[in-house]
Amino acid sequence: MKIVTIKDIAKVTGFSPSTISRVIANNSRISEETKQKVRAVMDELGYHPNLTARNLVVQSTKTIGVIMPSSADKSLQNPFFTEVLRGIGSYFHQKQFSMLLSSGQTEEEKFKEIERMVLGKYVDGIILLYSRLNDSVVDFLKEKNFPFVMVGKPSEYKDEIVHVDNDNIKAGKDITEHLLENGHKRISFIGGAADLVVTIDRQKGYETALKEAGIPVSEEYIIHTEFLKSGGREAVEQILELKVKPDAIVVSDDLISVGVISMLEEYGLKVPEHISLVSFNNIYFSEIIHPALTTVDIQIYRLGVESAKAIIQICTNQVLNEKRIIIPHCIAYRNSVKVIK
Amino acid sequence: MKIVTIKDIAKVTGFSPSTISRVIANNSRISEETKQKVRAVMDELGYHPNLTARNLVVQSTKTIGVIMPSSADKSLQNPFFTEVLRGIGSYFHQKQFSMLLSSGQTEEEKFKEIERMVLGKYVDGIILLYSRLNDSVVDFLKEKNFPFVMVGKPSEYKDEIVHVDNDNIKAGKDITEHLLENGHKRISFIGGAADLVVTIDRQKGYETALKEAGIPVSEEYIIHTEFLKSGGREAVEQILELKVKPDAIVVSDDLISVGVISMLEEYGLKVPEHISLVSFNNIYFSEIIHPALTTVDIQIYRLGVESAKAIIQICTNQVLNEKRIIIPHCIAYRNSVKVIK
DNA sequence: CTGTTAGCGCGTTCAA
DNA sequence: TTGAACGCGCTAACAG
């Protein structure tokens, strides 16, 4: 299959390559007549611009690297990611941008890969889909002064790094207060990985709500677990060993909730009859499992859209009003909370 | 930030650009001594090869377009996708390949995008993460003779299209037989989108198992639904309206199972006490929900790895022994099946 | 409105 | 073992 280039079109039409190029760009200084002619020949010969060649000369790829947690991380299974990806994709598509997905299994592999993308100028910008404590990737990007935005709150340099986030502290407070308002007094917190900023913030909100309600925050009531089944088990077992058992739990992520609920059931505790439970994210699952989860809807899709919008703005040198873009949350009230009067 | 190119290194070291290029390629005809020198200067100046420039000259990008269902499709929420992506990524990483993710919301957008990737020579190959009936994308790729592999079984041209698949007919048969062996006689089938080849195959297996057991296949017992909640509801309602209610259900996808189980519970039917249920995929969830699902483990991760391996083989002109690559399945026995003696 | 010229940064002949 | 020259396919100055 012969490759059709701009030159071929030039030859056939009798115009110069630059004219052809202008037709492609739909340059206004080209007469409609020539445009017609040129386009006809393009169709005929099946011409299509070579993106790589164009990228080389314009020094831009219109491609953004989208970085997920390293794939060894269990949290990758979280439907959260496909949902942000959907959001990002929808905006990218309309702006004709592409997403290059990271694939590293370990932190180190991921780092190498990002280095390759960035230093090799294979992407114009980066979207980080998570925020961790002491992330070398962030340091690297900052040092290189490379355009990037983060979904979630940076652990450092909050007013230098553009990020799209929920007010997770507020969200944690809101959902805990919902429990309080429904008469719950002994509220436990089960969080995911403790080095995730999002976990920290939600926990902070939980603590704030308790304090404001005059309820002391007890260390025993706060548990950290992984996304693994055994983790869910341990968390539940820890709770069951408490002298005074909680009447409600705030879980930092819907996915963990699923495990926790099923563990509780195994120990004969039903949600919400015996114990109430709320969590965060409002992934598709939280609505279809039994009981349907009362959870904070953080609008994952919008997080994706806005981060896409932000990175494209940065890459196209538009002004960005704010470093911190907050997506509002709301509570999806469902059936995992019992009303204690 | 000044861009460091091969020429800069050439200037500083006193060698010619072509020598530098050879050092990068680690060409054996360059003396170790010069290599050392050149590399030292590269480090010093912070040189990194420009991937776009390289891609242009070698006429290859070492990136593969990975195509998901259009993002309007609810099935995208299925953790299946992140899991294949993990598999693909792990192999790509080790071969230094990149993944370009599709983002189209509608079928048409997706088609346009693929056209752009392919015609614009922005990718060396394509992996299709689904298989539908009458897919124009497949026709396009076939017609252009563009390298691609499919995860799942093609609806047409089975022995022309390279694809990585499970033996879903066998899987459907196996899991149905498991039900049969446990004493179930009235077995219903709930399938996802009816134009997905995978649904069709699993149903075929279900029917085969029934026939071989001498049980007539009843149209009433076969229901198709979407991934939506309402769909799950309708499916369950249809089942409950049956004069003779089934004692077990084969569901074509774990994600649908979740909805079905929760609907059943809403109607007072517990799994497996009142009705047994089995399904397919063995996503992370199926293990942590209650009851833990007895499901066909199709090894999603491996599907990803093998499809990655295949597309890279094709793109690097290696010989591929088989068009059809089958990933073996096995049954993960858990707690959603009751034994009727 | 259109053509000429010059690169973008790199790999690869061919010659030395 | 190294260098000069060319070209990948395209855009963008500068001319006219």
From TrEMBL, chains A, B:
Domain HTH lacI-type: 4-58
Keyword Transcription attached: yes
A Pfam cross-reference name: LacI
Protein name in the entry: LacI family transcriptional regulator
SMART domains assigned to the protein according to its UniProt record, in alphabetical order: HTH_LACI
Organism the protein comes from: Oceanobacillus neutriphilus
Keywords, in A-Z order: DNA-binding, Transcription, Transcription regulation
Taxonomic lineage of the native organism: Bacteria, Bacillati, Bacillota, Bacilli, Bacillales
PANTHER family to which the protein is assigned, alphabetical: HTH-TYPE TRANSCRIPTIONAL REGULATOR GALS, LACI-RELATED TRANSCRIPTIONAL REPRESSOR
Keyword Lipid metabolism: no
PROSITE patterns: HTH_LACI_2
Top-level lineage group: Bacteria
SUPFAM superfamilies tied to this protein: lambda repressor-like DNA-binding domains (SSF47413), Periplasmic binding protein-like I (SSF53822)
